[in-house]
Amino acid sequence: MKQIIAILRDERVEETKTALESIGVRGITFLYVIGRGEQKGRVSARELAGSQNRNMRMQLESPLPVDKLPDAEIGAAGSPFHTDAEFALGFLPKRMLVIISCDEGVNRIVQAIVNSNQTGRHGDGRIFICPMISAIRVRTGEHGDKALS
Predict the structure, then answer these.
(1) Which CATH number fits the domain that encloses residue 110?
(2) Number of compact structural domains in the chain
(3) How many CA atoms lie within 13 Å of 42's alpha carbon, on the beta-carbon side?
(4) Cβ of 41: how many Cβ atoms within 10 Å?
(5) Are the C-beta atoms of residues 87 and 42 closer than 8 Å to each other?
(6) 13 and 78 co-located in one domain
(7) Do 33 and 54 fall into the same domain?
(8) CA-CA-CA-CA torsion sign (136, 140, 143, 147)
(9) Do 48 and 69 share a structural domain?
(10) Cα separation, 89 vs 36, whole angstroms
(11) DSSP annotation of 80
(12) Tell me: the pLDDT tens digits for 76-99?
């Protein structure tokens, strides 16, 4: 029995749920988390503009009013930031997915998570696989793999 923990982009949750449901995964827990990885919370203006996460966009504030910024700093669609600019936001909103699986289902689950989250950009996430000692279904008292079905 294994515990699969994945840290994912917030905006990829629906694709991930669909992919996992399509391979028969029923028990999934998603948590709202914040964190940072190798990029130390840096995000490009292009990714920030495309983000569906309102909280992440709101973390970024221009130190000057838009009409006071030099023309070179005005990005696409009137954004006050050049699209090649990069901003350090500190901790970024992410989603943490937790699944407990029988050993034989782990590879299939991991592949579904990777396929639904891989964009080729920094911040696509991480997956951790940990051994589980046991599981107990509270309602029936079943132990081990029987508690997962």
Answers:
(1) 3.30.70.120
(2) 2
(3) 10
(4) 16
(5) yes
(6) no
(7) no
(8) negative
(9) yes
(10) 9
(11) S
(12) 444 444 444 444 556 788 999 999
